[in-house]
Amino acid sequence: MTQSILIVEDDLTFATMLKTWLGKKGYEVETASTNARARKLLTTRDFSLILSDLRLPDQDGIHLLSWLRDLQKATPVIIMTSYAEIQGAVLAMKEGAADYVSKPVQPDELLKKIKEAISQESKVVATPKESKENFATQNFLEGESEAARQLYNYVNLVAPTQMSVLINGASGTGKEYVAHRIHQLSKRADKPFIAIDCGSIPKDLAASEFFGHVKGSFTGALTDKVGAFEEANGGTLFLDEIGNLSYEVQVQLLRALQERRIRRIGSTKEIEVDIRLVSATNENLKESISKGNFREDLYHRINEFTLLMPALKDRQEDILLFANFFLDQANRELDRHLIGFDAAASEAMQNYSWPGNLRQLKNIVKRATLLAQGDFISIRELGDEILEHATPDAQQMQHSFVLHDEETEKQRILNALQQTGNNKTKAAQLLGVDRKTLYNKLKLYNIPQ
Ligand SMILES: Nc1ncnc2c1ncn2[C@@H]1O[C@H](COP(=O)(O)OP(=O)(O)OP(=O)(O)O)[C@@H](O)[C@H]1O
């Protein structure tokens, strides 16, 4: 199950940055900029963890803690403070905070604390086998198209080996998911899977991200830091957007991969590491090599096997499978009970080009699940972009209100009337038709007015 985090922070730039970063780490994240907004969100849903600034425009984080305690909510809270507010952090711990981190926040330290706080809270530790099963059946879909069949043929072949895999494909095609899948199907499945987004690390911090550093080795190195190579030891290291690494870091990376040993920045001690490397890119690395931006020797090292991710438009047969799969997920997340997509919506989705691939489909389905008023998602809820690309027939169908069979249509009308206490205007709104159409249908089905 995806874990959810509520960030309570009035510095919006910092909150957005944290949200993006935690999203990349697999968490579902919401933000609130005031204590009041956070409380409102907390009354509508539960979160696995709250990450709150100590100082907020309305009330401080301590108030949030006592409010949670009064409601007997056990959601763990991590408080973020500046060094000057350390007394506040101590008070927060006394008030029941699970932990605190000082600003500027060290990403590694924060992630470790988040994981600890959530795992202490849930106390249910999945065995590796269970989590493998979970990943396979609940969150992952292979698809049935020829392109999917070929892809997973290769995935199944390469996963149990030690080969370095380069996953090439456009944004949102599921590269990180496939990397995870390779890990899950390998002998390293019960060891760590560490993902690094090479596109988002500042150039001068990249080496420290990979290899770690010792305290004081450069300005800002306030504590010892374990790098991704060490963290992934025994498991899989996933380097996303590998084409974005600077030339110097490429050299260091190549050396580490060849020698299977690393040194933390500022340390002389060599540490042996055993990692399986999976990388991903949406660039043409051969072109980058010819332009002198990517080292050819590194390319061969990371690319013992290439997987090409098909674009969603090239796996037509999978579009509706994924749409329904994402609908199930969205139903669970939003506590809705939609049955499916109506005929026009299904047709429009199959005709659309999906430039943002699976990610775009997932987002659109989630939004539509939230907006849908009947039992089925209609083309209207899929948004203008898809409507514009729909065939004239499908566009027509969205106005016609004819469902697949009359019995279903009659039942929908009766349900809508019941839900709205027989209010025709509201029932028509709920059904997404105008009042005149509703009256015609009432006559057609002999429904008493
Ligand atoms: N096989 C799959 N089964 C279920 N969901 C998937 C699958 N592949 C991708 N998704 C969904 O699509 C979203 C995008 O996938 P992912 O992040 O792996 O794409 P990506 O190619 O790595 O994108 P980017 O290049 O932008 O990082 C994921 O958040 C996931 O929810």
Can you describe this structure?
There is one protein chain. The protein is α/β, with parallel strands linked by helices. It folds into 3 domains: about 5-120, Response regulator (Rossmann fold), CATH 3.40.50; about 130-310, P-loop containing nucleotide triphosphate hydrolases (Rossmann fold); about 315-445, Helicase, Ruva Protein, domain 3 (Orthogonal Bundle), CATH 1.10.8.60. Helix content is about 50%, strand content about 15%. The protein has helices spanning about 10-25, 35-45, 60-70, 85-95, 105-120, 130-140, 145-160, 175-185, 205-210, 230, 245-260, 285-290, 295-300, 315-335, 345-350, 355-370, 385-390, 390-400, 405-420, 425-430, 435-445; strands spanning about 5-10, 30, 50-55, 75-80, 100-105, 165-170, 195, 210-215, 225, 235-240, 260-265, 270, 275-280, 305-310, 340, 375. The strands form 5 sheets. A 5-stranded parallel beta sheet has the order 2-1-3-4-5, sandwiched between helices. A 5-stranded parallel beta sheet has the order 7-10-13-6-14. Helix 14 (about 315-335) packs across helix 16 (about 355-370) and helix 19 packs across helix 20. The longest helix has 19 residues, at about 315-335. It is flat. The two termini are about 45 Å apart. InterPro entries: AAA+_ATPase (IPR003593), AAA_lid_NorR (IPR058031), CheY-like_superfamily (IPR011006), Homeodomain-like_sf (IPR009057), HTH_Fis (IPR002197), P-loop_NTPase (IPR027417), Sig_transdc_resp-reg_receiver (IPR001789), Sigma_54_int (IPR002078).
